[in-house]
Specification:
Length: 139
């Protein structure tokens, strides 16, 4: 953490000094980690447990109390778009458009110009007939 003290006002410097002094008092009043660790191990042993039995089996997310949502992993998809200048630059059409393609479309070319011939069709556009009436002939 870098704080440029040259740019701080008198009020900001005073509050920084007070916060630093409070933090220093907190850190100096705490017992060392090694001492606390020994006390915790002794307490667990006194009740017939080991630390591994108490905390070793749980994943880190459960120990800290935070739950993590599961995400569905999408399968791999063959590339639809390829850069003619660099054949290693490909894009499947999923996710954010890569920089190389965004740069080339910004200069007037179309995304469909980069489709891999014979393998790919353009990604479906989202401009459908939402909210428009559809006429269906009966009879």
């Amino acid at each position: 953490m870098n704080i440029d003290v040259e740019k701080l006002s008198l009020r900001e410097l005073t509050s920084l000094l007070n916060a630093a002094e409070q933090r220093k008092q907190l850190l100096s009043s705490r017992r060392p980690v090694a001492v606390v660790r020994k006390a915790v191990i002794a307490l667990a042993a006194q009740h017939g447990y080991t630390i591994e039995e108490l905390y070793g089996d749980l994943p880190a997310a459960e120990v800290s109390g935070k739950k993590r949502g599961s995400r569905r992993k999408l399968g791999k998809v063959a590339p639809k778009y390829r850069d003619p200048d660099n054949k290693r630059n490909t894009w499947s059409g999923r996710g954010r458009m890569p920089r190389w393609l965004a740069q080339k479309t910004k200069h007037g070319r179309s995304v469909t110009d980069f489709l891999i011939p014979g393998l790919a069709r353009p990604t479906a556009s989202k401009s459908g007939a939402i909210g428009q009436k559809k006429i269906v002939r009966q009879g």
